[in-house]
Amino acid sequence: MPKPTRFVPGTVVGECVLVRRIADGGMGEVHEATSPWGHVAVKLVTWGGMRGTEALARFLREGALLRELSHPGIVKVLAHGVDGRTKIPFLVLELLEGDDLDVVVGRRGPLSPELVASLGVEVSLALEHAHERGVVHRDVKPANVIVPRDPSRGRAILCDFGLSKRVGAEGSITGTGALLGTPYFMAPEQVLDSKHADVRSDVFSLAMTLYFAVTGKNPFESLEGPELVRAVCSHPVPDVRTYRRDVPEALAVALAFALHRDARARATLEELRSALLEIAEGTTGVPSAPGSRAARVGPTSRPRGLAELDTLELQKGSYSVMRSLGPNLVEAVNDEGQVVRIERLGPLVERQKDELFRELELLVGNANDALVALVDHGEAAGEHYVVSESLEDPELATYVDTRGPFTMDRGLRAVSRFVRGYGKVSSAGFVHGAIGPSTLSLRATNTKRILVLSDIGIARRIRALGAASTAKRAEDPRVDVLGVVAALHFAVVGQLPFGAQGVVADGGAARPLAVTFVAPEPAVLRALEALVRRAIQGEIPSFEALGHELRALAGDPPTG
User: Is the dihedral of CA 176, 177, 180, 185 positive or negative?
Assistant: First the structure.
């Protein structure tokens, strides 16, 4: 569902007249517009961290710097400014016709090693141009590499410098200490603290982008949220030939060198390009697909399958399916008229069944108001299902997007209450693995809204074990600690401290007036970022320890 927007078609922004919204995401929204330069893309930076005179002044300085970038491999910034009516900063960009690399690989499958090397050379030249002018991109990924329809524009164009920063600058558009970027393609040092991102971080992200282009995979793609962040920070990237055996050794070595976890030992941009040039010798460009659309600056949405269920008979009764909520997930009504959610786990082997029953017993035995209630489970036609209550209450992500962030005090109270409840099930050995703003809901009570884990995620964890998998169930509570800390950051700041910050296509539908986000005080941001870094580095080992941390932030005396 698209986010609300106040920028409807016909709105005038600078010298541009908006035509339709083509994308939106963590930093803002993108519109097609008419202008003195012809049809353009207007990026409106609606992120709450851009409020305040100092932040706007920094944006204007850095916008001017981006306009100085003039390279055929970089999308052109035509103008920048601050909208007089809303005080929201904007960039005017050339509107490219083509597909991003994510779409190209999704449509064609993995590309040839020679072609991938050729694309890498062009992107490296674009990055070199930016680096020489003191600009670090910080969000190089397949969705930010456009393959243009017009071959005269080259094979690849680098876009979306929305997270860029000036080398050596104390601040950037996104502020220091913020963990911004796309973790699937982000260097470990950038995950820990984005103010440490430099030209070497862009090298890592480019290499990971090429890794994806030649294999069609990202080695961390099965992970999300806190598990993803911890893996990026602590696990080496596997050899590219793990996923594609015919990748030439020269390319495998070049990528491995550029993907070194230690930035000091990582290949330079020049070293990577030199290796890619040798591999790319004698290659041709990416053929344009008929009917390519205007490129989107952001990750690509992919179609998802729907659960195909009608009626289920399980241990505690019959369930009539009402609607699909996603792959293997439906909303249903039981014999008593209660609305429930049903997750389909599929056929299970003994190992998976044992783990399922362990989790169910643990959750039922430690039930409390921090967890959605389990209603039923069972097997039908050889497939296993889990039934839980369905909450009508909004997810934390939706609530903050529509009503604005919490105050620090309110955020601490809500999260502290959740920590006390969830800590009981955590201390019994339960690890969720994907706690965040989209798995937490704000249940309305008589006097307040309380945080509830609305998506218990059993199906995801059980399927991950797999019939032939050697994977072990997650046992480290620090994964969940990090998820809760990230949710606190989101509740107070209005965005995650890490995560995909590029824009996501939404179809361009207009929505009601968006809420105005107000950035927290600098001291609040520093305290939250320090807590996030400690959680990422594994220094908060349990929910009991997290409770102590939250009480210290609130200024409460220690207990126990």
Answer: positive
